[in-house]
UniProtKB/TrEMBL annotation:
The keyword Transferase applies. InterPro entries: Acyl_CoA_acyltransferase, GNAT_acetyltra_N, GNAT_acetyltra_YdfB-like, GNAT_dom. Keywords: Transferase. Pfam families: GNAT_acetyltran. Residues 126-256 form the N-acetyltransferase domain. GO terms for molecular function: acyltransferase activity, transferring groups other than amino-acyl groups. Gene3D superfamilies: 3.40.630.30, GNAT acetyltransferase-like. This is GCN5-related N-acetyltransferase. It comes from the Bacteria. The keyword Metal-binding does not apply.
C-alpha cells in the first residue's frame, strides 16, 4: 500500500462529505493545504494537512497516519479523526507522543451578528490602544513575534496575505499586542485565529479584534468561521454572537 498526493480533490468528496470544517473546505477548493490518499482514482482513506492541522477520513490507514508532507517543518500537529478506528490507530502509532484532547465546534450561522453591538465593542476599547487592519508593516511585525505568528503564518508573504487574507490588530505605541486574522481562507470566507500577548490578556483586546474582523468580513461578504481550542475560546465566541455546536476529539502530536 502507498500514499499518493492528490491534486484533483474531487475523488475525496465522498470521504469528507458532511464534515463542517472550513480547513477541509479550503483544501478541497484548492485554496490551501495538501491532500493525500491510498489511491488516486478510487480512494478508501484520505488525509488533509493544512497549517497545524491534519484530518483523516474513510477507512483507517497507518501509512496516512505516519505521512508527513515534505514541506512540513513543525514537529507539532493536531490530528482530527473522522471515527474511532482512526482514533485507535493514532493512539497506537504515536503512543505517548499523542495527547487526546477535546475541541469545540462553533455553529456556522449567517445573519446572526449584531452589527451595532460589534461596532460598540470596537469603539469602547481603552484610549491607550488603537485598532488597525493588518498592513505590510504590521504583517512583518506579526510574523517576527512567536506569540503572534499564527495570525499570518499560512500565507507565503505579505503580497499573498494582501491578496487573500484579512486581519485586525490592537496596537499600543505602535506595538502589536493582540490580533484577529485569517488563519486560512476558503472560497466563502475565513477561519479566525485570535492571539493576545500574554501580558495583555483579560483586557478585552481579543474581543475588540474579533469584533473588528467580523465586521470587516461581513462588509466583504466573507463568513468569519470560528473553532475553539478551549472553553475560554467558546465564551469569547459567544460574546461575539456565535453559538456552540459540539465538542469533538482531536490529538495533539508532539513528535510528528
Amino acid at each position: 500500500m502507498s500514499v499518493y498526493e492528490i491534486s484533483d480533490t474531487k475523488c475525496l468528496e465522498k470521504l469528507f462529505q458532511g464534515w463542517q470544517e472550513t480547513l477541509i473546505w479550503s483544501c478541497m477548493q484548492g485554496c490551501m493545504g495538501r491532500a493525500y490518499a491510498d489511491d488516486i482514482t478510487n480512494p478508501k482513506s484520505a488525509q488533509i494537512v493544512i497549517g497545524d492541522f491534519c484530518f483523516f477520513a474513510g477507512k483507517a490507514n497507518k501509512e496516512l497516519v505516519w505521512n508527513k508532507p515534505d514541506d512540513c517543518k513543525s514537529n507539532f500537529i493536531i490530528m482530527i479523526p473522522q471515527n474511532n478506528e482512526w482514533n485507535e490507530l493514532i493512539e497506537q502509532t504515536y503512543k505517548e507522543s499523542a495527547t487526546k484532547v477535546y475541541r469545540y465546534a462553533i455553529k456556522k450561522e449567517r445573519n446572526i451578528f449584531d452589527i451595532v453591538k460589534l461596532k460598540k465593542v470596537v469603539q469602547d476599547i481603552k484610549k491607550t490602544f488603537n485598532i488597525k487592519m493588518i498592513d505590510k508593516d504590521i504583517f512583518n511585525q506579526v510574523i517576527k513575534n512567536t506569540w503572534s505568528q499564527d495570525l499570518c503564518s499560512q500565507f507565503n508573504d505579505y503580497e499573498d496575505y494582501k491578496k487573500r487574507g484579512i486581519g485586525a490588530v490592537v496596537l499600543e505605541d505602535g506595538i502589536v499586542v493582540s490580533g484577529a486574522s485569517s488563519y486560512i481562507v476558503y472560497n466563502e470566507g475565513i477561519e479566525i485565529e485570535i492571539d493576545t500577548r500574554k501580558d495583555y490578556r483579560r483586557k478585552g483586546l481579543a474581543l475588540a479584534c474579533g469584533a473588528k474582523l467580523i465586521l470587516e468580513c461581513l462588509n466583504k461578504g466573507l463568513y468569519p468561521s470560528w473553532d475553539a481550542q478551549n472553553k475560554g475560546s467558546v465564551a469569547l465566541a459567544e460574546k461575539l454572537g456565535y453559538h456552540f455546536d459540539k465538542e469533538y476529539i482531536a490529538y495533539e502530536i508532539v513528535d510528528y
